[in-house]
Amino acid sequence: MLQKLFFLFVLAFTAISCQFTETMVMNEDGSGIMTVEVNLNEMMAFGGQAMADSTVVKMDTIVYMKQFLEEKKDSISKLSVTEQQKLKKLENFNIHIKMDSETSEMVYDISTNFKNISEANDILNGLEQAGNLMPNPDANTEIKKEEDTPEIVGVNYSFEKGIFKRDAYIKDEKLHQQQVDSMKQAEAFMGSSNYVLKYTFPKKIKKTSNPDAAFSEDKKTVSIQAPFLDYFKNPDLLDLEVELEK
Do the domain assignments include residue 183? Predict the structure, then answer.
């Protein structure tokens, strides 16, 4: 069952509109929580019955990656060194998936509590990798990867002297272009998909680098968004610098 669900989850990225929301809440000492959520409600409404084999699906599961990786350490030891290193970076992340075929709800997110915002730098890689690491009803199932999965887009977060920065970048230009080309056939379906940033800070925001940013009434939360396909083609589109009041 889960294998079919996650096959359709991957399909959703190429054929069905979905919404991405990157949320951060920062505390006075620079610690906080970062979450990237993928809302697949439209996919669930479109194919929920097929996924469920005409059976009602209800799931609300949290995977604590540190615990999960420890339980699967024997399987992980059989992977390439590169893949093992990628998985090691996920140990401080948690994955939450919620499905309800009756209400056409499917929300998937990965989050991490950080002491310093730079600890969230691998969260996008974690989102890419997490679909391969869901729990399986068969306890004997091992993690298997046929080949190394390249990291194509990365992001760096920093917060120093009251200035927060988000800098997305392309890690592999050739592979990135290949993915952009492969997504052309899906553009008509994903035209309504957006990538949203919503960041909350402990102090009021003095200014931001993005002229289209929207602010909460208390001036502590900033929100910006871009069409997902535009952002995927040009990750710099959602680069952001935020200066807080002293």
Answer: yes
76 within a domain of the structure (yes/no): no
Q: Residue 153 — φ and ψ, nearest 5°?
A: -120, 135
Q: What is the pLDDT of residues 116-162, one digit of tens each?
A: 999 888 787 666 655 555 444 334 445 555 455 566 788 999 999 99
Residues 59-75 have pLDDT tens digits of 898 989 899 889 888 88
Residue 93 in contact with residue 123, Cβ under 8 Å? yes
pTM, two decimals, is 0.81
Please give the Cα distance from 207 to 210 (Å, whole number). 9
Do the beta carbons of residue 22 and residue 108 sit within 8 Å? no
Q: Show the CA angle centred on residue 186, arms to residues 199 and 100, nearest 5°.
A: 60
Instruction: Provide the residue count of the chain.
Output: 246
**Is 198 inside any structural domain?**
yes
- DSSP secondary structure code for residue 119 in this structure: G
- 170 contacts: CB under 8 Å, gap ≥ 6: 152, 153, 176, 235
Domain membership of residue 202 as a residue range: 2-61+93-136+146-244
Q: Is residue 72 part of a domain?
A: no
Number of domains the chain is built from: 1
Element at 175 (helix H, strand E): helix 173-182
Give per-10-residue mean pLDDT for the chain (246 aa): 38 60 96 91 62 68 88 87 82 87 84 92 68 45 52 88 94 85 70 89 97 96 92 92 96
CB 148 within 8 Å of CB 80: yes
Helix axes 81-88, 123-130, angle to 10 degrees: 120
